Each structure stands twice: as C-alpha cells, then as structure tokens.
Amino acid sequence: MGAQDQAWADALRLRYFPPERNHLPAHITLFHHLPPTCLAEVQDRLARLAQEPRPRARLEGFYSLGGGVAVRVESAELLALRDYLADHFALLLTPQDRASPRLHITIQNKVTAEVARATLAEVSAEFRPRPLVIAGLAAWHYRGGPWSLIRRYRFRG
User: How far apart are the C-alpha atoms of 147 and 124, rounded to whole Å?
Assistant: First the structure.
C-alpha cells in the first residue's frame, strides 16, 4: 500500500489485532501458500508485474470475519493480476488459493465474536469509501513462526 494507507491500516492492526498474533504489517493477501521450490519463478513474475502501472483500488467498508474484522478492497485490476499469477501457478495452488479471493485487509483476527462485533461497529461508524494506493507486491516466507520478507516489488509503470 501507499505510505498513508499503510500507516492507517497498520494503526488499526496495532489497536485491534491481538498483539501476540500481530507479526506482519497490514497487507492484502493474494496467495496463502506457494511452494518454496518455485520461489525463483515467483520472484521473476512479481518483478515483471511491477513494471506495469499500479492497479487501481478502493476501500469499500468493513465486514465481519466472525472472529475478527477486515476492510473490503475492491480492485478489478488487482484481481486480474492475481488471476494471471494463479493461471501460471495453477498446478501448485492449494484448495484455498484455487478459490475465488475476497480482497481485504485484516485488522483483527482470532478474537471472540462479541469483541469482533464491537470492533466492527466502532470502525464502521465514521468510515467513508475511498481510493486505496497499491504501491507494490511482496513475497514472504513462513518459517513455522515469524514470517520473513523475501522481497518487495514497487510498481514503476
């Protein structure tokens, strides 16, 4: 995300995400798991995509995750980019990554339904839909505990 959007989303995560589970900056997940064996190919594809203009996107509102809250991201262009990657890695995708994605930024997870409902009411009260800057793509590696950043790719087109 762009710097202002990142700061806004990170502040929400800091306020509402259980601290013991908040190990990553705010983000929009395109894929949950690609095998480490295809890392070089993933990096190559992300570097190529970063040469293109950044996708247009909007923040459209908050919604319940049951045990958490997310802000809905609408972006046909980001979905098209994801579809391009999904087609390329189709045989390697997990069932979760084969499903149609719901683009979002999780600001709270793994809390009780009651806490999530209160958070949803609070964050929704003054929210207005607005544009969201998609500044780039990133690849992360899950190492059984904390995540580690592999690389960020800023859109340059």
Answer: 30
